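During the no-cost extension, the postdoctoral fellow (Dr. R.K.) reprocessed legacy sequence entries with the updated structure-token encoder. One reprocessed record is reproduced below for audit purposes.
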Amino acid sequence: MFKLFFVCALFATQLVNAQSSSVDAQRSAADRQRQQTMDAMTKSISTQMNAIRASRKIAAREATPAAFFVLDPELQPASASTGPACDPMSAIAAQGLASKAAAANQISPELVFSVMRRESAFLPCAVSDKGALGLMQLMPETAMQLGVIDPLDAEQNVLGGAKYLRQLFARYSGDLNKTLGAYNAGPGRVDDYDGVPPFPETLNYVDSILNSLQPAKH
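Re-encoded structure tokens follow.
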């Protein structure tokens, strides 16, 4: 009887060890796959950014939005600070893209359009000093979390940006001030201050978008 018990205990131990090894192997494989995806994305983004910097011979033209609402013509993009290497998207194209992304995420197209204009001035190739990319200026890590494979692809980028706005809108129970503050400065800062962080850039960012949404507030 004791021998049988010993054999059973030994078998159970071996089974547990085998299961543990299998789980560890699966985790290692998942980690490797995640790292490979991140490395490939980083390499792709780096290649595109280098191409953008190398081709800055095309003059930037300011797009003037014609529908949805009236925007301040002196408004500058919030974060896209490097010189553009592409033409800005037309207002009609930007509105169509904003409407598609908004419908997919059940938020206001005016909000998506205004954030897009404020973030990048409708430049699909906009790259900030901090590494934010595209029309709604997604950071590479954020883009990956949102499922955006190519942040410099206009449609992917805006769909991801609209998804992020929706997540923030839900996180802050429909508080648009906090949502915009988090999009600009990060949710952590908004949580720290329990409101829009008192940074001039962020305060100006939130005010400019809210003003642009008048009289059709979200």
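The two ends are 75 Å apart (CA to CA). Residues 2-54 form the longest helix (53 residues). The remaining legacy entries will be reprocessed before the final report is submitted.
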